[in-house]
Every structure is written in structure tokens, then in C-alpha cells.
Amino acid sequence: MNEELISRLTEDLKASRLTVVLTGAGVSVESGIPPFRGKGGLWERFDPMEVAHIDAFMRNPARVWDLLLREMHHLLNRVRPGTSHQGLARLEEAGYLSTVITQNVDGLHQAAGNTDVIEFHGSFARQLCLDCGKQIPTTLVSLETLPPRCSCGGILRPDCVFFGEMIPPQALERSFQLAEACNLMLVVGTSAVVQPVASLPGVAKSTGAKVVEINQEPTPLSARVADYSLFGEAGKILGQVAAGLPPRGRRH
Ligand code: APR
Predict the structure, then answer these.
(1) From the CA of 21, how far away is ligand 1's center (Å)?
(2) Which CATH number fits domain 34-78+124-160: 3.30.70.890, 3.40.190.170, 3.30.1600.10, 3.40.50.360?
(3) HSE of 50 in the Cβ direction (CA atoms, 13 Å)?
(4) Angle between the 234-243 and 2-15 helix axes, to the nearest 10 degrees?
(5) 116-149, pLDDT tens digit by residue?
(6) Which residues, listed in sequence order, are joined to residue 155 by a DSSP beta bridge?
(7) Could you tell me if 46 and 63 are in contact, meaning their C-beta atoms sit under 8 angstroms apart?
(8) 121 is annotated as an active-site residue
(9) Domain 1-32+81-121+167-252, CATH homologous superfamily name and number
């Protein structure tokens, strides 16, 4: 079943003048980062409103650092790109992919070699001081005492979008512009339930693009928005797709 869809996707990639991909936590699972929902998901262990909402953070930053952010800090200092990231980097290298719009905050698309990555939910690679606004690389932040503090004494927070916060305006605007302009949108490794990012595939579809989903299980996109879905391990599928595409030079 996937064999036929993989060759169909290869043809769609060859025919597309402007292709964008939207990724979620499913592309980083192989790198050892747990997803949020479904089997082994973080939100099965924690209530996101208790540990990932801006109000919860401002009420008790030490608790959010202790329950959620310490694990992310530990993980993200060690993880490497997996086959999903490598497959998408190969698609850009071969000239079939222009931009990655990602919900992930792990920086692994850039580490794999994609050069145009929109971080829709920000990035854990940077911490911001709540008092003086200074940006500090997360790798330089010690978690000996929680919450970690800036040299000015202010509390540090990740440069990620908590629930209850606005999406960075430039990321929002550029993502919707690309959704409207693209001929093909790949949607990989996302449950497609969080807004406004989950509206992007519908916008692409409504403005004439093909939408192709690659995910382990069906999502709200599968029946109503995707032209077709490939169900399985994203890394394996993307590796097979990339292997079937001759380099065409960086068009985008
Ligand atoms: N290959 C393909 N799909 C996979 C794989 C894999 N190896 N592993 C998991 N998946 C799929 C799961 O079936 C699931 O549908 O990836 C999806 C991950 O969904 P979520 O965990 O909900 O992650 P995501 O969609 O990125 O979450 C969106 O929610 O909590 C917020 O801010 C957080 O950015 C996150 C947003």
C-alpha cells in the first residue's frame, strides 16, 4: 500500500514548484524525544495546563522547571537528528523542499541541515530573562537551583510558546503566506490538534495545494484535508521518498 503512495508522492514532489513541510513531535521521537500525545506522550504524565501554560509558569516557575523543563533541558542537550530530519534535509539538498515549518522546539531540523526553518512554537535552544530580556543559550544555563536565573537576578524562561501565549508574529505570518503560496504541503508527525498551526494544511488545501500526510496514525486531517496519507514510521517513509528523487538543484 505505501509503495504505491511513495511513488505517487515522489511524482508530486517532482511536479511541485514550491513545497513546504509542516512537522510535529513525531519526527523527533526516533531521536529519543517523547511525543506529547498518544503512546508514551508527555501529556499522559502531566496536565499541559499545569506545566505548559504561561499562567502556571508565572505562578510557580520553579515547579514548571522541575516537572517539565528540567527533562527538556537534559534531553535537548543530548539529542541528534534522526532519519526523519535527515530525509527532509536531503529533500532540501536535492531541490524539492523550500521551508520547514515546525512545531518542535528541539532545533533538530537545523542540525540536520535544513536552512529555512520556521519555529512556530519558538525554540528551547534559547532562554530569556523575565527582567532584563537578555537571551542566553540553553547550553550555558545551569539547573543547580530552580528556577535558573540571569546574572541580573531575573528568572529565566525558555524562548518557547507556552499555552496561553501568542505565536511569534513573523512565524505566524510567514507560515500562512507559505501555506497559501505552496503547491504541495507535506504534514509529518503531528496529531494536528493544536491551533493555529493545525489550520495551515486546510489553508494550503483551500488555496489549491496538494496536502500529503505522513503519520503513524490517522489524524483530523486524514479524512477531510489530506489528498492522501502514508501511515507508518516517518523516517522510513521519508528515506524511501528521498532515495527515489534525483537531485534537481536548489530551485526554491
Ligand atoms: N513516525 C510518524 N509519526 C509518528 C511517529 C513516527 N515515528 N511517532 C509518533 N508519531 C505521530 C503520533 O501518532 C502523533 O499523531 O506523531 C504525532 C505526534 O503528535 P503530538 O505528540 O500531539 O505532537 P504535535 O502534533 O507536534 O503537538 C503539537 O502540542 O503540546 C503542544 O506545543 C506542543 O508543539 C506541540 C503541539
Answers:
(1) 14
(2) 3.30.1600.10
(3) 10
(4) 60
(5) 999 999 999 999 999 999 999 999 999 999 999 9
(6) 149
(7) no
(8) yes
(9) TPP-binding domain (3.40.50.1220)
Sheet holding 122-129, edge to edge: 135-137, 122-129, 156-160
Question: What pLDDT digit, counting tens, does each position of 77-118 carry?
Answer: 899 999 999 999 999 999 999 999 999 999 999 999 999 999
Q: Closest residue (by CA) to atom 36 of ligand 1?
A: 194
Residues contacting 195, CB < 8 A, separation 6+? none
Ligand 1 mean position to 181 CA, how many Å? 25
Distance from Cα 131 to the centre of ligand 1, integer Å: 33
Q: Is 29 in the pocket of ligand 1 (CB under 6 A)?
A: yes
